[in-house]
């Protein structure tokens, strides 16, 4: 029995560690943001509305650009047995959100395992161990791996591409990136092109054989996404082509804010990699083999920097390869820790690990407080039940609340009803018959503020044992209709 347990831990111990951290993030921060809304709503509708497309959220709220249903369909199929059992047991739908996020996390971590196994084969067990340690004490990779962003769906294929690259399966690596580019994230083209060029220049692949393998894959991917998404969107559609046109040709992504060219290198990557940021540069100097793998990934971030609109999630697929380079440096420092100069580096390395862990804890605490409308709706469901259970309770969710924690998985069945109608002026709410409002404004004529939920605002320094603290402020206000006596006669916490 002991030998079996030891063998099991040897095979899956790292997966259990990373999976446990990712699962912790799921249960502690279950709600989702606007960036995840399409896939979250699509999964809900696939699971609960199935073939009744007229009830699907994306037809009423299509978003700025269309996205593919392929990732949502895959996750929903895998999660459906568990969710069917939950429905039979009358579990609230929020548990289904846990289920789909855990299924997605398993898929991404499975591809991560494949990459990790190739690291062990290429660089040894010790580099693999440091790779896992660096990933575990970082926040973003494991926090995001369960979040249904197009970037994360593409991340799974990028992990497979990295694994095949280390294994020497160069054509398979290119095919994985083609799949990711044409179906999930067109910007993966910025990784595919530098990698393909490097493989051609180093004569690792031949041009004609690459065309033979890759054109077939490309046609298959385009056919698959056009077929599926034309049915789901009810019009002829290749989603990622429209995204490419919107972002690159029209350059309209800048409407959502811009950052300077250097932002990924001076802000996003340092916050994401933490201790691995200086170490990955050292790894390139210590082991020449890693340069072949780092160069296309570095080029990917460099090329992406030319796009004015920048977000950390856009380059998150570069993090595993940077972590590999950092793990090589960490392994070399550990092996030489008894030598004079390396002893100093070893102390610095241990200090960086502790700082990284502290930064991850702070970032998690901020993220925990960053979904105020999800907590607001949960509190309303708990406190806002009316005496007469036959009366419908209409809840209006304003755009701010819809973007900061609320999805269809958060909704309850009758007598609760929900509206996300946009464009209602503040002065018009008094003419509507909503029972409750979730709104970013605390004063609306005809409604009384019942309570508010606070959300993360900023980090500030302070004196004392903890040098910093999180500043929270009211973000979402729950208001009740003053004409509804059942609402007004209840005891509420208030907004003061």
UniProtKB/TrEMBL annotation:
Reactions listed under catalytic activity: an alpha-D-Man-(1->2)-alpha-D-Man-(1->2)-alpha-D-Man-(1->3)-[alpha-D-Man-(1->2)-alpha-D-Man-(1->3)-alpha-D-Man-(1->6)]-beta-D-Man-(1->4)-beta-D-GlcNAc-(1->4)-alpha-D-GlcNAc-diphospho-di-trans,poly-cis-dolichol + a di-trans,poly-cis-dolichyl beta-D-mannosyl phosphate = an alpha-D-Man-(1->2)-alpha-D-Man-(1->2)-alpha-D-Man-(1->3)-[alpha-D-Man-(1->2)-alpha-D-Man-(1->3)-[alpha-D-Man-(1->6)]-alpha-D-Man-(1->6)]-beta-D-Man-(1->4)-beta-D-GlcNAc-(1->4)-alpha-D-GlcNAc-diphospho-di-trans,poly-cis-dolichol + a di-trans,poly-cis-dolichyl phosphate + H(+)
Membrane disposition: Multi-pass membrane protein
GO process annotations (BP): ERAD pathway; protein N-linked glycosylation via asparagine
Domain of life: Eukaryota
EC number: 2.4.1.-
InterPro entries assigned to the protein according to its UniProt record, in alphabetical order: GPI_mannosylTrfase
GO molecular function: dol-P-Man:Man(7)GlcNAc(2)-PP-Dol alpha-1,6-mannosyltransferase activity
Transmembrane segments: 12-31, 69-88, 94-115, 127-150, 170-201, 213-233, 261-283, 290-307, 313-335, 347-368
Pathway the protein acts in: Protein modification; protein glycosylation
Enzyme class: transferase
The keyword Cell division belongs to this UniProt entry's keyword annotation: no
One GO cellular component term: endoplasmic reticulum membrane
Predominant localisation class: endoplasmic reticulum
This protein's UniProt keywords: Endoplasmic reticulum, Glycosyltransferase, Membrane, Transferase, Transmembrane, Transmembrane helix
Compartments, as annotated in UniProt: Endoplasmic reticulum membrane
PANTHER family per UniProt: DOL-P-MAN:MAN(7)GLCNAC(2)-PP-DOL ALPHA-1,6-MANNOSYLTRANSFERASE (PTHR22760:SF1), GLYCOSYLTRANSFERASE (PTHR22760)
Record family assignment: Belongs to the glycosyltransferase 22 family.
Chain's role: Mannosyltransferase that operates in the biosynthetic pathway of dolichol-linked oligosaccharides, the glycan precursors employed in protein asparagine (N)-glycosylation. The assembly of dolichol-linked oligosaccharides begins on the cytosolic side of the endoplasmic reticulum membrane and finishes in its lumen. The sequential addition of sugars to dolichol pyrophosphate produces dolichol-linked oligosaccharides containing fourteen sugars, including two GlcNAcs, nine mannoses and three glucoses.
Protein name, entry field: Mannosyltransferase
């Amino acid at each position: 029995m002991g030998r079996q347990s030891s063998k099991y831990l040897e095979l899956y111990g790292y997966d259990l560690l990373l999976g446990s951290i990712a699962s912790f993030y799921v249960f502690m921060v279950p709600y989702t943001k606007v960036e995840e809304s399409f896939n979250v709503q699509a999964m809900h509708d696939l699971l609960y509305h199935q073939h009744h497309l007229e009830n699907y959220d994306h037809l009423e709220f299509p978003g700025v650009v269309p996205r593919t249903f392929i990732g949502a369909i895959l996750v929903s199929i895998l999660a459906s047995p568990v969710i069917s059992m939950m429905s039979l047991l009358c579990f609230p739908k929020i548990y289904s959100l846990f289920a789909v996020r855990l299924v997605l996390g398993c898929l991404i971590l499975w591809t991560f395992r494949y990459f990790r196994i190739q690291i062990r084969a290429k660089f040894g067990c010790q580099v693999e161990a440091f790779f896992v340690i660096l990933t575990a004490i970082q926040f973003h990779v494991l926090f995001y791996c369960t979040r249904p962003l197009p970037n994360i769906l593409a991340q799974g294929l990028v992990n497979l591409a990295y694994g095949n690259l280390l294994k020497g399966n160069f054509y398979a690596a290119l095919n994985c990136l083609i799949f990711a580019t044409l179906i999930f994230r067109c910007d993966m083209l910025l990784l595919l092109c530098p990698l393909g060029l490097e493989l051609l220049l180093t004569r690792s692949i031949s041009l004609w054989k690459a065309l033979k393998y890759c054109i077939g894959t490309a046609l298959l991917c385009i056919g698959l996404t056009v077929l599926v998404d034309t049915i789901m969107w009810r019009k002829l559609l290749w989603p990622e082509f429209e995204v490419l046109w919107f972002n690159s040709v029209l350059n309209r992504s800048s409407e959502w804010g811009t950052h300077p060219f250097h932002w990924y290198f001076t802000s996003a990557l340092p916050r994401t990699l933490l201790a691995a940021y200086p170490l990955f540069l050292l790894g390139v100097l210590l082991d020449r083999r890693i340069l072949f793998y780092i160069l296309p990934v570095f080029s990917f971030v460099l090329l992406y920097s030319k796009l004015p609109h920048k977000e950390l999630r856009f380059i998150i697929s570069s993090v595993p390869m940077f972590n590999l380079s950092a793990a090589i440096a960490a392994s070399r420092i550990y092996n030489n820790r008894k030598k004079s100069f390396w002893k100093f580096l070893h102390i610095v390395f241990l200090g960086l690990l502790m700082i990284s862990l502290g930064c991850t804890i702070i970032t998690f605490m901020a993220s925990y407080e960053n979904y105020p409308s999800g907590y607001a709706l949960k509190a309303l469901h708990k406190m806002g039940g009316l005496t007469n259970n036959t009366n419908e309770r209409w809840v209006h969710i304003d755009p701010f609340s819809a973007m900061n924690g609320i999805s269809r998985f958060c909704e309850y069945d009758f007598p609760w009803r929900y509206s996300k109608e946009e464009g209602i002026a503040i002065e018009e709410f008094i003419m509507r018959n909503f029972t409750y409002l979730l709104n970013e404004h605390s004063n609306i004529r005809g409604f009384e503020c019942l309570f508010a939920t606070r959300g993360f605002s900023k980090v500030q320094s302070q004196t004392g044992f903890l040098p910093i603290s999180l500043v929270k402020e009211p973000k979402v206000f729950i208001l009740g209709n003053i004409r509804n006596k059942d609402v007004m006669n209840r005891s509420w916490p208030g907004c003061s």
